[in-house]
Design goal:
The chain is of the alpha/beta class. The chain is 33% helix and 16% strand. It has 9 helices and 12 strands. The chain has helices at residues 29-33, 40-46, 64-82, 97-100, 104-116, 121-128, 183-191, 199-208, 214-221; strands at residues 2-4, 15-16, 35-36, 50-51, 87-88, 131-133, 138-144, 154-159, 175-176, 227-229, 232-235, 238-240. The strands form 4 sheets. Strands 4-10-7-8 form a 4-stranded mixed β-sheet. A hairpin with a 2-residue loop joins strand 11 and strand 12 (238-240). It starts with a strand and ends in a 9-residue tail after the last strand. The model has no long low-confidence stretch (mean pLDDT 89).
């Protein structure tokens, strides 16, 4: 998890998962050519969110182009913000940190270049002959900001197993204090006021705390029911979920 900058326009100074926005460059033919795991059948399996009964949300699943772009954006943002690159070769074989070692210096400088807009993610992958390993991601949820908030987001949350030898490092630009933390520890520290999280993040960490290991989480994520969730805001912009959806989204 990463602590967002105090200067951030959105949830400043709280701990969040790596993430960001879908860019136009994530939906170009160049980007699609430099990704694996975005085949039509895979996209249909991934983006299967539906509306919960009696709890409607304004957005359903994205079209194929946007869906592919969202997977590429997730890989890109995790690299930009956390320094973890889910990469593979042309055949879809996942690459380890050792495989990426020849590119270490270039990848280090590329994170800043991506932030500055000096290079696009597909161009970087093309330069290094790497592919975004979108197949490593599993869509876990879709949450939508309620209309009472001035900034609204249609957010897709993904889970993935990082290569065991990859180290995560906050970018020290948008995010700081990167930390690997067990879900139950994060919840306990949040309860004590030592680890600030916002409602949607807390709800996701609560779900993650149900699993004993990454393998069990990934198996669940690839087959779970996914609802488009837009929390209620009954008073003072406090979020809430119906009790029957608490651990069912």
């Amino acid at each position: 998890m990463l602590r967002r900058s105090e200067a951030s326009h959105f949830v400043p100074d709280v701990y969040v998962f790596p993430g960001g926005t879908l860019d136009d460059a994530d939906m170009t033919e160049q980007a699609f050519a430099r990704a694996r795991g975005i085949e039509p059948g895979t996209l249909r399996e991934q983006f299967r969110a539906k509306h919960a009964p009696a709890f409607p949300a304004p957005f359903g699943s994205p079209g194929p182009k946007e869906a592919a772009g969202l997977l590429i954006a997730a890989v890109r943002e995790m690299f930009e913000e956390a320094g973890v690159l889910l990469a593979c070769d042309a055949n879809g074989r996942a690459l380890s940190d050792r495989d990426l070692e020849p590119h270490r210096e270039r990848l280090h400088t590329a994170r800043r270049a991506l932030h500055a807009g000096e290079v696009a993610f597909p161009q970087l992958l093309d330069e290094l002959d790497l592919y975004a390993n979108a197949g490593a991601l599993a869509l876990f949820s879709q949450w939508i900001t309620p209309p009472v908030f001035p900034r609204r987001y249609n957010a897709h949350f993904f889970v993935a197993a990082a290569s065991p030898d990859q180290a995560a490092v906050a970018d020290a630009f948008e995010t700081h204090d990167g930390i690997w933390i067990a879900p139950r520890t994060a919840l306990a520290k949040c309860e004590l006021g030592e680890f600030r999280m916002v409602y949607p993040t807390i709800k996701h960490v609560e779900r993650l705390a149900e699993f004993q290991n990454v393998q069990a989480l990934m198996e669940f994520a690839r087959t779970k029911t996914i609802y488009s969730i837009m929390p209620d805001t009954p008073a003072e912009r406090e979020f809430s979920l119906p009790s029957d959806l608490e651990f069912a989204w």
